[in-house]
Every structure is written in C-alpha cells, then in structure tokens.
Specification:
CATH architecture of the domain at 17-74: Orthogonal Bundle
Number of helices: 9
Strand content: 15-25%
Number of strands: 8
CATH topology of the domain at 17-74: Arc Repressor Mutant, subunit A
CATH superfamily of the domain at 17-74: Integrase, N-terminal zinc-binding domain
Distance between the termini: 20 Å
Structural class: alpha+beta
Shape: globular
Radius of gyration: 18 Å
Order of helices and strands: HHHHEEHEEHEEHEHEH
C-alpha cells in the first residue's frame, strides 16, 4: 500500500492550513471549548479535553490561549457558546465529503460551507446521505528515520492500535478513537514523535477520478479545510501518486 493511505490523501491540503498558525489555533481553541463544555475543565478527568490540549501544545499554542479556551467551555468566561455539527455532501463527480464542524453560529456556517461546495461544483447534502461510507479512526504518521518498524509495532499494538502500514517514507498507525489518547501518550513516553496525528473519518471504499476531476475535488477539500469552523474534512476520493504530486 506504499503511497496509498489515508495520510497520503490528506497531507497535500493540510500543509496550507497548518502554515496559518493563528487560524489553526482558532480551530484548536474551539475543540478545547467544546471538550470542556461537555466534560468539564479538568483534563485528568476529561480524556477528550486532555487530547485537545495535547494537540494544541503540539503546534505551540500559548498556555494562556489554552487556559482561556477551557474557561470559556466551563462558563467562567464568555464565548463558550460553541456547538458541534456534522455536514455531509457531494463533491465534483459525486464523491462523498464529510465535514466535522464547531461553530457559534450554525446559520452563518451553513451558508458559508454551502457556498464552498457550490463554487467547486459540489452540493451540500442531507443528514446521513454519505455518513454510512465512513468510520471514525485515529491516524498517526511516523517518519521511518526515527524508529524501526518492529519498535513502532511493539508500542502501537500493546496500546490498542489495529494496523501499521508501511508508506514510502513513513509508517501509518490506525486505531479506534477510544484508544487514541492512550496511544498518543504511549508514543510520547517511548519518545516516538509523530509527523501528523488526528481522529478523522476513513472511507470504507474509495473511488478514483481523472486528473481534471481530481483538481476540482482538491480545490473543494482545501477550501473546506481553510474554513475557520471546519475541524476536519474527509472524502472517499483516492488520489493517485501523480495527482498528489501535481497538488504538492
């Protein structure tokens, strides 16, 4: 499977968003707010909040920003009226697209996301129109240069990972969302740093498209990823190596 993985199909559009640090911090702040709102402000008793804080620290989000987001979630500060939503739709060629959303204004977000779909030749769909095609999974990507496959597998499998895939220059580890936090902490203890990690939606089946269609779909996915309220985007399109190279 070298070159064809969940990571291969998201990394080309992640780079642009991750380079805009303030935008990324804004997304992470919303994730922290929601986690604190749902499970309380103590990360020791709130695994979801602990995971969100780990993700924020991984991109050097300031401590003050993290603490302020927690207080918004617990109601100690204003600005905690953030809710989670899941948008589903179709991209060019009918490919399935799903967006995990955190927003403080669902009407504004719905209109803006619908416009992104429309401009790219897609269409925002109804609830459950494509959700059955996806499964939530934890994804970790580790460079081959920092750890051997045997050492990585030992830590991964002992801590609940279900699969380790060899890519061209990396390893990809996948797990159920329930063990994502434990696996994150296990990698930190073992001093195995990850190039990329997230809980995302992985398609059960994928479709390939021609080069022109691939460009249109990539534009849609990048536009959605760049939206302030979109936490993550998933699609069942399978880009080829050549198509990924053209997007780099």
């Amino acid at each position: 499977m070298a070159g064809h993985s969940q990571y291969s199909n998201i990394k080309h559009r992640k780079a642009a968003v991750d380079s805009k640090r303030s935008k990324l911090w804004g997304k992470l702040a919303k994730a922290i707010i929601v986690a604190a709102k749902l499970g309380g402000g103590d990360p020791d008793g709130n695994p979801r909040l602990r995971t969100a804080i780990i993700d924020a620290k991984a991109v050097s989000m300031p401590k003050d920003n993290i603490e302020r987001a927690i207080k918004k979630g617990t109601g100690e500060l204003e600005g905690g009226d953030v809710e989670e939503m899941l948008y589903e739709g179709y991209g060019p060629g009918g490919v399935a697209v799903m967006c995990d959303i955190t927003t403080d204004n669902r009407n504004r977000t719905a209109g803006e996301v619908r416009m992104i779909f429309d401009k790219a030749g897609g269409q925002l769909g109804k609830t459950n129109c494509v959700a059955y095609l996806f499964e939530r999974r934890g994804i970790f990507v580790v460079a081959r240069t920092i750890v051997s496959l045997d050492a990585l597998m030992e830590v991964a499998i002992e801590n609940g990972a279900e699969d380790v895939t060899e890519l061209d220059e990396q390893y990809e580890v996948s797990c159920a969302p329930e063990v994502y936090l434990g696996l994150t902490e296990a990698f930190e203890v073992a001093k195995i740093s990850c190039e990329h990690k997230e809980i995302t939606r992985v398609p059960s089946t994928t479709v390939e498209v021609d080069n022109e269609m691939a460009k249109s779909i990539a534009k849609l996915l990048a536009g959605l990823d760049d939206h302030d309220d979109v936490q993550s985007v998933s699609s069942n399109v399978q880009f080829t190596d050549d198509q990924l190279a053209d997007m780099a």
